[in-house]
Amino acid sequence: MITWRRLTEDDFGLLREWLMQPHVARWWHHDTSPDAVARDFGPAARGEEPSEDLLVMLDGTPVALVQRCRFADYPDDAEELAGQVELPGTAVTIDYLLGDPARVGQGLGPRIIRAVVEAVWTDCPDASAVVVPVHTANRPSWRALEKAGLRRIATADLDPDNPDDDRTHYVYRIDRPADPLADTGPGPGPRADP
């Protein structure tokens, strides 16, 4: 069972361990000192920043981090991407990591992405789409997006997280599903398809 809650400052030690894992460090390229983790993740943990850092658990055991935010809350990122792809003003984006290397390659990433995207439709009722840029060389990440149901819509020139990488990113998107109750046929309820 996949669940999540907001990351708290008590989780920073675990997050530091995850950020130091080679499979995470390659793509997140983050300073793992206690001060840097507190500086970069503290504002969201305290609710001082509009993004959400979600500690994802599998059957109660922490396994991943998902960051979720609206592009509108980060205008520089929105502007950089909107100049290259159609970006709805209400679009949400996510970033993610699996912390434990033993859990990589087992299909957990797509399950987490799918669950978080489905929650976006409830948690962010005005969100029309989830749009996720990912570096083209990060095949495990973009394959997880595809397995979770997102489709590649473009290639974009964006600042990389790791300065060793070039600027080439794939952009993935999934749109809010149509409201199943809006398509009603004769009678009082939703139409049942044979």
From TrEMBL:
Keyword annotations from UniProtKB, A to Z: Antibiotic resistance, Transferase
Organism annotation: Streptomyces finlayi
Keyword Transferase: yes
Classification via PANTHER family: LYSINE N-ACYLTRANSFERASE C17G9.06C-RELATED (PTHR31438:SF1)
Domain N-acetyltransferase: 2-177
Gene3D superfamilies assigned: 3.40.630.30
Region feature (Disordered): 175-194
InterPro entries: Acyl_CoA_acyltransferase, GNAT_dom
Signal sequence, renumbered to the chain: none
Name the UniProt record assigns to this protein: GNAT family N-acetyltransferase
SUPFAM superfamilies, A to Z: Acyl-CoA N-acyltransferases (Nat) (SSF55729)
GO molecular function terms noted in the UniProt entry: N-acyltransferase activity
